[in-house]
Amino acid sequence: MITRENLVDQAKKEILGFIFRQKLAKGERLLSIDEFADLLSVSKTTVREAIRSLEQLHFVEVKQGKGMYLAVDPQSLGKNIAQLKSVTEMARESGIEL
Questions:
Q1: What long-range pairs does 60-69 form, CB within 8 A, spacing at least 24?
Q2: Residue 41: what pLDDT?
Q3: How far apart are the C-alpha atoms of 27 and 9, rounded to whole Å?
Q4: Which of 13, 30, 40, 96, CA to CA, is 20 to 30 A from 21?
Q5: Cβ(32)–Cβ(72) under 8 Å?
Q6: Cα–Cα distances in angstroms (integers) from residue 85 to residues 16, 21, 33, 92, 96, in the given order
Q7: Which of 56, 44, 66 is nearest to 87 (CA)?
Q8: SS3 string of the chain?
Q9: Residues 46 and 85: beta-carbon distance below 8 Å
Q10: What percentage of the chain exceeds 70 in pLDDT?
Q11: Could you give phi then psi for residue 70, rounded to 5 degrees?
């Protein structure tokens, strides 16, 4: 059974995967919530919760009225998305204490 929590976690992983696939750099603008919702085929609420979680972990920065931006250098997170086991682990590896 897929719970809402699982869906948000899956969305976080997909957003991080998008960042790696697009080879985005720190400070680059991310897709909008609407664009991520369409891309991931999930609700805007799910994307908002996933982004909020990534913002709390300091992976993304949301600037009111301007968009969402990558707050870390993806290269510091590892080169292969398959190596990334969890958002919590990535945070620790990036020096971010939870």
A1: 60/30, 67/29, 67/30, 67/32, 68/29, 68/30, 68/31, 68/32, 68/33, 69/27, 69/28, 69/29, 69/30
A2: 93
A3: 23
A4: 96
A5: no
A6: 12, 17, 24, 12, 16
A7: 56
A8: CCCHHHHHHHHHHHHHHHHHHCCCCCCCECCCHHHHHHHHCCCHHHHHHHHHHHHHCCCEEEECCCEEEECCCHHHHCCCHHHCCCHHHHHHHCCCCC
A9: no
A10: 77
A11: -75, 125
**Among 65, 74, 22, 31, CA closest to 51:** 31
Residue recorded with tokens 């919760």: 49
Look-up of token digits 């991931």? 40
- Cβ atoms within 10 Å of 49's Cβ, excluding its own: 19
Structure tokens of 70?
């990558």
